[in-house]
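As agreed, record minuted below.
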Amino acid sequence: MSARVNRLRRPTPALRLVAIVVSIALALAGMPMRVQAQANLPLIRDAEIEQLLREYTAPVLRVAGLAQQNVHVVIINERAFNAFVVDGKRIFINVGALMDAKTPNEIIGVLAHETGHIAGGHLTRLREELAHAQTATIIAMLIGVGAAIASSRAGGANSGAGSIGGAALTAPQSIIERNLLSYVRAQEEQADKAGVKFLTMTQQSPKGMYDTFKRFADKIEFQTKYIDPYLQTHPMPKERMEALAEIAKSSPYWDKKDPPELQARHDMMRAKLSGFLERPDTVAHRYPASDTSLPARYARAISAYRYGDIHSALSQIDALIHAQPNNPYFHELKGQALLEGGHPAEAVAPLRRAGALAPNAMLIRIMLGQALVATNQVKDAEEAIPLLRTAVIREPEMADGYSQLAMAYGRKGDLAEADLAAAQAAFASGDYRTARDLATRAKTRFPTGSPGWVRADDIVTYKPPPGATRHN
């Protein structure tokens, strides 16, 4: 659950406007965050959590007219509460939002707001505004330079007229920035309204959305008290909350609660994230031994396998399975604990069971393939290959799936397919040079024009965008 994080360098003055607009497009409720390329974002993948988030977003996307657009939620391993969109296909949400939100309705409200941005075409329009602003900035700078030169020639170096030209350089850009920021504040208000509309259409309460934004409005109220309101990326908290309260509290579903079964799954998600991401003492404090609820037992079992005795962890996991025999994610956890504990052969059975209970969970299928490959048995590798091939078709960006597939082919001695799968793993990771080298070698092993040769040739001839080539 870790990944590299690339920090942006401090922008040069010429890029300041661009950096401001990028941060506007990514931030929620004015909260700061590091802007990162997706390939370097510390992403979290988990079958259970992703399934729950799909169920959170499906009704909202349907009424927003986006059901066929294949929008999915991407989880970022950042503890700050945040969510944002950068295109029409993905909603990014920080793990901190999932852990801090006490009810499903709070997260659903945030997702409804972000869906409002996608449905409203805000990103496309923002890019148009940015392009216009960049053109206007260049013109303003040229005018400013001309004014500075003219005043310098007219008044001489010591006349003070040069400072007027300097002001001409900065004043138009400041006006452009304010106009852009005002434009984005309007987008946020529109996304609030759209989010409430979507929640009402799906007969869900907007209270969670309101409570979440109110919490952050309260946090930043002091910060914004002494800041120019025209330099804010979002509406000022008081004004925004008043507008949101008016439309949210008028909903006939304001007091509607989440279904108990959905709340239970939400609690399990939060416990799972705590067990995987937090220190054992933090988990023990958050979920003490006196708490015998299923989420508490889930968190402690995960923490035990990650930091404690594998036998104690397996005992706790078996107790969870006994409580819910058909919960695929308990079987997945047992398989993961055994696999990472150095017992791949023993991990196969629980992972097979997990896969049978959740047949569409490709992440479980990849882990089962990994366990089969790790037994070092050719027959197990042969079983893993069709599992992994199906998984990577459904999850083409999962480098781990291709890596395991490469090892499975290697166990069989199929070097052509092994090289191709390894090349695809490197490509999915963004390591285009390694991908090209491996694909070049794979081409020499396949008959010219065969399907494998064509796939390898696609990688060899791929031209990454400027600056995208990365070496691992």
Summary: The CA atoms of residues 125 and 131 lie 10 Å apart. The radius of gyration is 26 Å. The longest strand covers residues 72-76. Confidence is low (pLDDT under 50) at residues 1-39, 135-149, 161-171, 224-235.
